[in-house]
Structure to design on (183 residues):
């Protein structure tokens, strides 16, 4: 309940770039990779992180994901992590990940191949997806190296992507030099 309340406050109240000391902390999530292996969001603390919630049926996602791939290709080696999180399957369960994603995985793989994406794809289980209350997709969240929310972008726009690029450059200039791999 505490995590749900915190996330609600973060998502409801945060819209603009905050000073580093004022950035609300994004809750630690557990993502699942294509093989069902967990990745805790806390594992990428120390790197600027872009979390992107998307779906295969989402037109704007078809534009935004290649842009995020390009951004990662350009600056991933300087400390940026991009975590695309597919939300096509709201009932996904950790304990039956393989069977739950059997129909979904070919769609995701086809989508990523057609879009020329090499970023690893992630999923969240149904309860986590429900807690996040992801309504508009794509939903992109930029986190600083400490896991603080820098900015959220609902939907896709060229202006939003330009802003994201500028903020990523600022975050990367703030210091640190960890490589951008989530693992």
């Amino acid at each position: 309940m505490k995590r749900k309340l915190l996330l609600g406050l973060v998502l409801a109240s945060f819209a603009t770039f905050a000073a580093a000391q004022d950035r609300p902390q994004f809750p630690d999530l557990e993502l699942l990779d294509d093989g069902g292996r967990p990745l805790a969001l806390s594992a990428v603390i120390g790197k600027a992180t872009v979390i992107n919630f998307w779906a295969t049926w989402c037109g704007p996602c078809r534009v935004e994901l290649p842009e995020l791939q390009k951004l990662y290709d350009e600056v991933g080696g300087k400390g940026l992590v991009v975590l695309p999180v597919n939300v096509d399957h709201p009932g996904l369960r950790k304990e039956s990940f393989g069977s739950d994603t059997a129909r979904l995985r070919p769609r995701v793989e086809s989508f990523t191949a057609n879009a020329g994406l090499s970023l690893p794809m992630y999923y969240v289980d149904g309860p986590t997806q429900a807690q996040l209350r992801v309504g508009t997709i794509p939903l992109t969240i930029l986190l600083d190296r400490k896991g603080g929310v820098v900015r959220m972008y609902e939907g896709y726009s060229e202006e939003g992507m330009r802003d994201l690029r500028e903020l990523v450059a600022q975050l990367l200039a703030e210091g640190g030099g960890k490589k951008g791999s989530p693992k």
